[in-house]
């Protein structure tokens, strides 16, 4: 893929701003600095390097995927998952975690193909009625995705949109027997 000169100039400006902000953050001794990821893109003409024909491109990534210690037996909140096979799995969750994150952290088979961007329905869960009634109404985007979900019920929600708090302690979430998989041949995304 080739980028136009204006696109490369914009990327270089973003890189300069990122470097300047990172340098300013070090001067102010900010404890949490953003992480950066580098990409390379083929260039032509004006931006071609003699040593390397790939120009660096950098983006700043959010600090969202850090490893968290799982809550102990008397910490956090209880979540009961009913798997596709009917097995009940009880786990603990931190406040503020989505049910999708809790399932991933405990190696449960809940897909989440779009990684919580409200672009699929593969994290569809069926909640117990008492817990469902404690939640706010789903937003329009969630309702649109739920319309695509396999086995939709009156208490269906997307796991990525159900955020754990004290009111949901003891929630029971049943995984439907199937999902509408966006990937070919049943492939599943690797969670990071």
Automatic annotation (TrEMBL):
<feature type="domain" description="2Fe-2S ferredoxin-type">
    <location>
        <begin position="77"/>
        <end position="179"/>
    </location>
</feature>
<dbReference type="InterPro" id="IPR018298">
    <property type="entry name" value="Adrenodoxin_Fe-S_BS"/>
</dbReference>
<dbReference type="GO" id="GO:0009055">
    <property type="term" value="F:electron transfer activity"/>
</dbReference>
<dbReference type="GO" id="GO:0140647">
    <property type="term" value="P:P450-containing electron transport chain"/>
</dbReference>
<dbReference type="Pfam" id="PF00111">
    <property type="entry name" value="Fer2"/>
</dbReference>
<dbReference type="InterPro" id="IPR001041">
    <property type="entry name" value="2Fe-2S_ferredoxin-type"/>
</dbReference>
<dbReference type="GO" id="GO:0046872">
    <property type="term" value="F:metal ion binding"/>
</dbReference>
<keyword id="KW-0408">Iron</keyword>
<keyword id="KW-0001">2Fe-2S</keyword>
<keyword id="KW-0411">Iron-sulfur</keyword>
<protein>
    <submittedName>
        <fullName>Adrenodoxin-like protein 1, mitochondrial</fullName>
    </submittedName>
</protein>
<keyword id="KW-0479">Metal-binding</keyword>
<dbReference type="InterPro" id="IPR001055">
    <property type="entry name" value="Adrenodoxin-like"/>
</dbReference>
<dbReference type="InterPro" id="IPR012675">
    <property type="entry name" value="Beta-grasp_dom_sf"/>
</dbReference>
<dbReference type="GO" id="GO:0051537">
    <property type="term" value="F:2 iron, 2 sulfur cluster binding"/>
</dbReference>
<dbReference type="InterPro" id="IPR036010">
    <property type="entry name" value="2Fe-2S_ferredoxin-like_sf"/>
</dbReference>
<comment type="similarity">
    <text>Belongs to the adrenodoxin/putidaredoxin family.</text>
</comment>
<dbReference type="GO" id="GO:0005739">
    <property type="term" value="C:mitochondrion"/>
</dbReference>
